[in-house]
Amino acid sequence: MTNDVAMTQAELLLAMKRQPGVENRHHVLKGVVDFVPVYLKSNERIDAFAFLGYIAVLVHALMERELRTAMREAGIAALPLYPEGRACKGPTAARVIEIFEPLCAHELVENDQVLRRYDPALSKLHRQILDLLEVPATAYQAAQTTPR
Question: How many CA atoms does the CB half-sphere of 51 hold within 13 Å?
Fold first, then answer.
């Protein structure tokens, strides 16, 4: 249904076929990003909050598009993103983020001195995804910091 009386039947059909894509992004906003109602006192804060939600959905969409395009260009039909290494033909940003979520760097500190840094161990899959997204693996290494 629409209130646009100027649309032809063909245009209406095309618009309806785009609906699942719009609903999928709405799912990302409400589910993955966890965009929930909050009480804000000013219109500026409401606008800023909505803008952040928009940016989060945009980043998810761009991440998925870049990864899927890189897979297609590299001739990769699927990545083993699911448990037990099952293949995934259309990776989602949410699944990629889940795979990278446990990675973290640690520092061993004594008397305000960093004694040792421990970088996360990147698996072959992590490195493959980073390569496809053109993100250097050094992004997952602890930055050289000065002693505290």
Answer: 6
Cβ-based neighbour number of residue 129 at 10 Å: 21
Q: How far apart are CA 99 and CA 97, in angstroms?
A: 5
Q: 3-54 pLDDT, tens per residue?
A: 778 888 888 888 777 776 666 666 676 666 667 677 778 888 888 888 888 8
Residue with tokens 């990003």: 33
Cα 119 from Cα 126, distance rounded (Å): 14
Q: What are phi and psi of 43, to 5 degrees?
A: -65, -35
Nearest-angstrom CA–CA distance, 122 and 100: 9
**CB atoms < 10 A from the CB of 38, how many?**
8
Residue type, 84: E
For the chain, report the end-to-end CA distance as a whole number of angstroms.
63
Identity of residue 1: M
State how beta strands 113-118 and 106-110 pair.
Answer: antiparallel
CA distance 122 to 129: 11
What tokens were used for 73? 């260009």
